[in-house]
Amino acid sequence: MSGFRSFLKTGHAPTLFASFLYFSFSCCIWVLNGAMAPFISETFNLSPAQKGLMLSVPIIAGALMRFPLGLLSQYIGRKSATLVEMGLIMVAMLFGFFFVKSFNDLLAMGVLLGIAGASFGVALSLGSGSFPPKHKGLAMGLVGAGNVGTAVSVLIAPPLAQAFGWVAVYGIAAVAISIPMIVMVVFAKEPDDLDAHASFKEHIACLFEKDGWAFSLIYAVTFGGFIGLCTFLPTYYYDQFGVSKVQAGQLTMLAAFMGAAVRVLGGWISDRWGGVNTLNLVLCTVAVTLVLCGLANGSLAATTLLVIVCFAALGAGNGAVFQLVPLRWPLATAVAGSMIGEIGALGGGLVPNAMGLSKQYLGSYAGGFYVFAGLAVAMLVMLRTMQIRWTRTWAEKGGRARSA
C-alpha cells in the first residue's frame, strides 16, 4: 500500500481518478446496445446477421472517432476535449430516448454511441500525463481499467430495460454522464507533459511507421477482442444457452469485470516483467481459450470459465500494449495511443459480424471463435518477429523501460 501511495505522489492523483471515471462511464454507454441486445432483437425480430451488424456499428464508429478526438485534444487541451465529448454523449443519449423507432434509427443510434467509444486515447493520455515514464504503464493500466464500465453496463442495463423499457435506458444514461463531467471540471488539470509541446509532425509520425501498425494490429486482438466479445456475449448466452436476458448480462459481467481488473495487473506486470513478454503469454492464452470456446458450445459452465480466462488474458494484453506505447513514442503518446486505439477498436467490429454470419450461414457461432483465434496466432508470429528489433533499440529485454 505504501508503494501505491508513493506511485500516486509521482503524478496528479485527482486527474488520474477523473480520467478513470470518465473512461468508465464512456465504456458503459458505448456498449449499451450490446447489453440490451436481447431486448432490442426481440423488439425488431432481428436475424443473426442483423444482430452482428447492430452490435458492430458502435464499435466501428467509436474507433473512427478516436483519432480525431486525439487531434482535437492537442489544440484545446485534453481536459477540454473530454468535456466536449461528454456533452456530445449527452445529446446522443437524448436522441436515443426520443427518436429510436426503427432498425434504421437503431443503426443511427449505434453511430452516436460511437462518440462514447472515442474517449480511450485522450483518457489514457490525460490520466497518465503527469506520471514519469517508469510509472506510465501502471497509470495507463489504472485509467484503462475503466473498461469495467462495460461490466457495469451489462449488469445494470438489462434490469433497467426490463423494468422501464430499453429505450428509457438511453434517457437514464443522458443524466448519468453529468457525473464524470462534474468530477472532470472540479478535480482534473491539464498535465504539463511532453505531449503538450511536441510538433504536429512528431504527433503524426507514428502513422507512417511499421511499429505503429504492429501495435495497432496486436491491439485489434486484445482490446478489439475485449470490446467485441463483451458486446456480443449477452446475445450469445441468450441464444446459445437459453438463459434469461438479465442472466445473460450477469454472465457477461463476470468476464468483462475480469478483463477490466486484470488490465491494471497487466500494466504493473509489464513494467516489471516487460510488455513483450506479457504479450507473448497473452496471445497464446487467447488463441487456446477461443478455440476451446468454439468446441464447448454445449456447456454453459465450461464456456463461462473459458471466457473468463480469455478476458483475463485480453485485459492483461491491453495493459501490456500501453506499457510499451509511451516507451516507443515518448513525445507523442496521446496521438499514438489514439491511432492505436482506433485501429484496435476496429478489430472489435469484426467479432459481432463474424459471430452473426457464422451462425446465420454455418448454423453455429463456433466459426466466429475460430476466426478470432486465428488472428491471435497471426499476431503472435508477428510479435515474435518484431520484438528482436524493439529490444535492441527502444526497450530493454522483454519490453521493459530503459533506465537511462
List the helices and strands and how they pair.
Elements: H1 2-9, H2 13-30, H3 32-35, H4 37-44, H5 48-76, H6 78-99, H7 103-117, H8 120-128, H9 133-144, H10 148-164, H11 166-176, H12 178-187, H13 200-204, H14 210-241, H15 245-273, H16 275-295, H17 300-328, H18 333-362, H19 366-393
Characterization of the model:
- The chain is mainly α.
- It has a single domain (13-184, 196-398), classed as MFS general substrate transporter like domains (Growth Hormone, Chain: A, Up-down Bundle).
- Helices cover 83% and strands 0% of the residues.
- The protein contains 19 helices and no strands.
- It has helices spanning 2-9, 13-30, 32-35, 37-44, 48-76, 78-99, 103-117, 120-128, 133-144, 148-164, 166-176, 178-187, 200-204, 210-241, 245-273, 275-295, 300-328, 333-362, 366-393.
- It is globular.
Keywords:
single chain; 404 residues; mainly alpha; Growth Hormone, Chain: A; 19 helices; 0% strand
Work out the helicity level. Answer: over 70%
Beta-strand level of the residues, as a percent range? under 5%
CATH superfamily: MFS general substrate transporter like domains
Structural class: mainly alpha
Overall CATH architecture: Up-down Bundle
Radius of gyration: 20 Å
Q: What gross morphology would you assign?
A: globular
Contiguous uncertain segments of 5+ residues: none
The CATH class turns out to be Mainly Alpha
The tally of domains stands at 1
Distance between the termini: 27 Å
Mean pLDDT: 91
**CATH domain fold name:** Growth Hormone, Chain: A
Q: Please describe the biggest sheet, giving its number of strands, its sense, and whether it closes into a barrel.
A: none
Number of helices: 19
- Give the ordered list of helices and strands: HHHHHHHHHHHHHHHHHHH
